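User: Please write out a complete single-protein record containing the residue sequence and its fold in C-alpha cell form, without commentary.

AI:
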Amino acid sequence: MGISRTPVREALQRLAAIRLVEISPHRFTRVTAPSDKEIADMQDYTVHMIAMTMHLALPRCSDEDVTEGARLLTGLMDAARANS
C-alpha cells in the first residue's frame, strides 16, 4: 500500500495501548473483543473529547459551520440509536 512499517507499528501500538488490538511479538496481532465496561468507557471518553473539541472550535466557527456540525452530530446520534 506504499506505507512504511514505522507508522503502521506506531498505530498498532496506540491501538494496543487502548486495548483494541492484542499484540504477541513474532506471533500475532489481533483485534480484541472489548468488554461492556470498556465499550462504555470508550463512549464516555469519546463524548468528553467531542465536548472539548467543540469548546475549542465553536468560537472560531461561522454560523454555517455550526449548522453543518449540528446536522452531522444529529446524524451520528441517530446512527448510535439505531445500533443500540
Remarks:
- The radius of gyration is 17 Å.
